[in-house]
Design brief:
A hairpin with a 5-residue loop joins strand 19 and strand 20. The chain has 20 helices and 34 strands. The termini are far apart. The strands form seven sheets. A seven-stranded antiparallel β-sheet has the order 7-6-12-11-10-8-9, sandwiched between helices. The chain has a five-stranded antiparallel β-sheet with strand order 2-1-5-4-3. The chain has a five-stranded antiparallel β-sheet with strand order 14-13-17-16-15, sandwiched between helices. The protein is rod-shaped and about 180 Å long. Helix content is 31%, strand content 28%.
């Protein structure tokens, strides 16, 4: 193994520099007699002065070494004594070129009592460069602040300069012939992404390839300060001999701890922008902060939030007695045993009491209040190991910036939690808690509010009892999220229910609803008014008649329903789309289908079948697959199966599902008679109705009410409506009496005077029945009533008027 440094006086030539980089000066000698004539001339003198010995021997030194500028000879410039020297002087070479030389003469005994002089000459420029080179090497060794290490090709330390000894507390004799990993076992080389390799690997690679490695970050504690780490920027280049063979590697290092820490702080702030507040969840946001700062900034951190903030309350409304909830805690387990956790509570409480940063330098604890919009939401406490440095002013400012960003995100999450809870409460209050049980149908439903940052949306559904044992089915979706969407949903749902009470066909109901939405969503009159969220709402409305088993439906921009037959086949209903509500003036189309016994109809919103990972077509296919298969008997189980299949996690948007399984009414529960347009037919109609009631086992009181209703309605139909007149009775839960005629004039209640002979019929009908109303058909109208099977006791007077039954 070639020795590189045995001591501090044997420099080596760095890789890449020529043999003349630090040249060896030419030392020329000559001998002169007593009269300063040359009697000897060395080969080095020939090279330096460009003169052969035969051209010089016997000649005077004054002639050969005269000053090329002044012509002054050596003897005139020389002093007395046994030795003297001349500073750099230009001497003309044999080829005519001047050369600057330093001369020295030393008295020389020539034998037999004769004396002479020994002349030594040196190229003055090369001598100066040699002096500079030696001074430079000595400076790098003893004075330079740069750390220098020379390794052999096996990566063992062969030499270190004084800067290494001062900063690491290591002597050359202790480091020589050892690997760095044995000298500083806790040190590590930092890669660009924090990955670590070894100094030995780098040195061996440079020695093998000759390619320099620049700006490697090395982190380690030192023997002088074993509890604090510092960072150096190190560069490596190969050393080789005159023949180009590698003999070692030189490492040059510079302490960059302050710069490295500053960059780490900036990087920490940069990462905070992307990692804190990624969700509108208070606990998750606090955990984001804890994960960011441990262990890079602190060895432990706790985040405590005022209890009421977690429920979304305004922090300024709190009293003096606050209840804190710890929502995040993180510890670097490597430093846990040396961290003063017992001081956290004291510093944290002082921080809250003073509503200002609090520190404890002795225990290395820092507490900062979480403030947003002038209100305190909680407190964050940072702790470090007892062996670490206490938090300095720059680090406190960094912590304040991190906590401030966290507080803003927490306040946003708090406000979202409040609005989400408000919107959810509003929506749940507006949605039906229970759906009415209607004859001929089974109903099941599910509603899942959005779990994402968008908040609760405006999905809704409804089941509306209609006349003639029919049922109205509604599902819709209001654009947007939050309390505005929930409030708009309630307004639209109420409007749909009011329009459905008019017994309108689905296409007509949507047309009227579209007109209302378009008018309420007109351009605002001032800049402060927000756009109405009803614009763009989608809706599907269907009417199912269990007597005829017909279902008529229309949709306004909503997804079509899925029809599942009794044998388990599922497919989309071919239903014209129609525009979303609020566009105004565009038509809607109805589609009528006949539903066989046991058929299931599925109405739903897009949140059930669409998300960021699944497009709507794939979601609808998945819904059909989930609904298909043999009937399991209970619609609630079917709902659960669909939700589990399509929404294994909480949905990003509101999702609603309404299932309707149909059953036809038994034929013996519905009877219909045609009535001729003759006043004499009224008695016949009463007789037919009473006979059927008797067959059904209806008690006398209910039969009496039905007889009166039939008599009044049939009389009015014959007198004012016109042919064709039809009487229908339906026995389901209660008694339904319907009389249809060919007229389109709507009947209305009026108060008859004491002297009037008529005008009391509908008034009596309204008093004796549960409900009554009118619906229009393509051929006329139908007056319908619902009579309780056990009617209440009938009064003898109405508004002070006497009457006889």
């Amino acid at each position: 193994m070639t020795s590189i440094f045995k001591g501090r006086d044997q420099p080596v030539r760095p890789h890449g520099r020529s043999s003349s980089a630090i040249p060896t000066p030419v030392g020329a000698t000559a001998v002169l007699d007593q009269r300063l004539r040359f009697t000897g001339w060395s080969r080095e003198a020939e090279e330096l002065f460009g003169l052969a010995s035969e051209e010089v021997l016997g000649r005077s030194a004054d002639a050969v070494l005269a000053d090329a500028e002044t012509g002054v000879g050596v003897s005139a410039a020389a002093g007395g004594g046994v030795a003297w020297s001349l500073g750099p002087r230009p001497v003309r070479r044999g080829d005519g070129r001047p050369v600057s030389v330093s001369l020295s003469l030393t008295r020389l005994a020539l034998g037999a009592g004769a004396t002479g002089w020994l002349l030594t000459a040196m190229d003055a420029e090369l001598a100066h460069r040699e002096a500079i080179g030696r001074a430079m090497l000595d400076g790098l060794d003893r004075e330079a602040p740069v750390q220098l290490v020379v390794y052999d090709t096996d990566a063992r330390v062969r030499w270190i300069n004084a800067a290494i000894e001062k900063q690491f507390g290591i002597l050359l004799e202790d480091a020589a012939d050892r690997f760095v990993k044995d000298i500083l076992p806790q040190g590590e080389v930092l890669g660009e992404e924090g990955t670590a390799t070894s100094v030995e690997e780098i040195v061996q690679r440079v020695a093998r390839t000759g390619a320099p490695v620049i700006d490697v970050r090395y982190r380690s504690s030192t023997h002088l300060d074993p509890h604090h780490e510092r960072v150096w920027s190190c560069s490596y280049f190969r050393l080789q001999d005159d023949d180009g063979r590698p003999i070692g590697v030189c490492e040059a290092g510079l302490d960059i701890t302050d710069r490295y820490v500053a960059r780490q702080r900036l990087a920490l702030l940069s990462r905070a922008s992307g990692s804190i507040g990624r969700t509108l969840d208070i606990r998750r946001t606090a955990q984001d902060l804890a994960e960011l700062v441990v262990p890079e900034f602190a060895d432990a951190v706790t985040v405590d939030i005022i209890e009421a903030v977690l429920s979304g309350q305004e922090p300024q409304h709190f009293g003096t007695h606050l209840t804190l909830c710890q929502v995040a805690h993180r510890t670097d387990h490597a430093a846990a045993k040396d961290t003063a956790y017992d001081a956290l509570d004291t510093v944290r409480l002082r921080c809250l009491a003073e509503n200002a940063p609090a520190t404890d330098a002795a225990t290395h604890v820092l507490a900062l209040p979480l403030k947003a919009r002038g209100a305190t939401l909680g407190v964050v406490a940072f702790a470090r190991s007892r062996h670490a440095d206490p938090f300095d002013q720059e680090e406190i400012q960094l912590a304040e910036e991190l906590v401030s960003r966290t507080a803003v995100c927490l306040d946003n999450a708090r406000r979202y939690a409040r609005e989400h809870a408000t919107a959810l409460t509003l929506q749940r209050d507006l949605l039906p808690r229970t759906l009415p049980q209607q004859p001929g149908v089974e109903v099941a439903h599910r509603y899942l509010p959005a779990a994402g940052p968008a908040g609760v949306g405006g999905d809704w559904y409804d089941v509306i009892p209609l006349s003639g044992a029919r049922v109205g089915l509604v599902v819709g979706d209001v654009a947007g999220h939050g309390t505005g969407a929930a409030a708009t949903m309630g307004r639209v749902r109420t409007t749909v229910a009011a329009l459905a009470a008019l017994d309108l066909a689905p296409d007509e109901l949507l047309a009227r609803l579209d007109d209302l939405v378009a008018r309420t969503g007109a351009p605002p009159s001032g800049p402060a008014e927000a756009e109405d969220q009803a614009l763009g709402v989608t809706c599907l409305y269907a009417i199912y008649d269990p007597v005829s088993r017909h279902c008529v439906m229309a949709r306004a921009g909503h997804l079509p329903p899925v029809l599942v037959t009794a044998d388990g086949h599922a497919e989309l209903v071919d239903l014209p789309a129609g525009p979303p509500l609020g566009l105004g003036g565009l038509p809607f189309e109805c589609s009528a289908i006949e539903l066989s016994e046991g058929t299931t109809l599925a109405l739903y919103t897009d949140g059930l079948v669409e998300n960021r990972h699944t497009d709507i077509d794939a979601g609808v296919r998945a819904l059909c697959t989930a609904l298909a298969g043999p009937e399991d008997g209970q619609l609630d189980k079917t709902c659960d199966r669909v939700i589990t299949s399509l929404l294994p996690q909480l949905p990003e948007d509101d999702a609603a599902l309404l299932l309707l399984r149909v059953h036809a009414l038994a034929e013996n529960l519905v009877v219909t008679w045609d009535v001729a347009s003759d006043a004499g037919e009224v008695a016949r109609a009463r007789s037919l109705a009473l006979g059927q009631l008797a067959a059904w086992g209806v008690d006398e009181a209910a039969s009496f009410v039905v007889e009166l209703v039939v008599s009044e309605l049939v009389t009015n139909a014959i007198r004012y409506g016109g042919a064709p007149v039809c009487l229908r009775l339906i026995r389901e839960c209660g008694l339904i009496v319907e009389v249809s005629d060919g007229g389109h004039t709507s009947p209305h209640l009026r108060r008859a005077a004491m002297e009037d002979e008529g005008g009391r019929g509908l008034f009596l009908v309204a008093q004796l029945t549960q409900r009554w109303g009118t619906r229009y058909t393509p051929t006329g109208k139908t007056i319908w009533t619902e009579v309780s099977p056990v009617p209440a006791k009938m009064p003898g007077t109405f508004a002070g008027e006497q009457f006889e039954l």
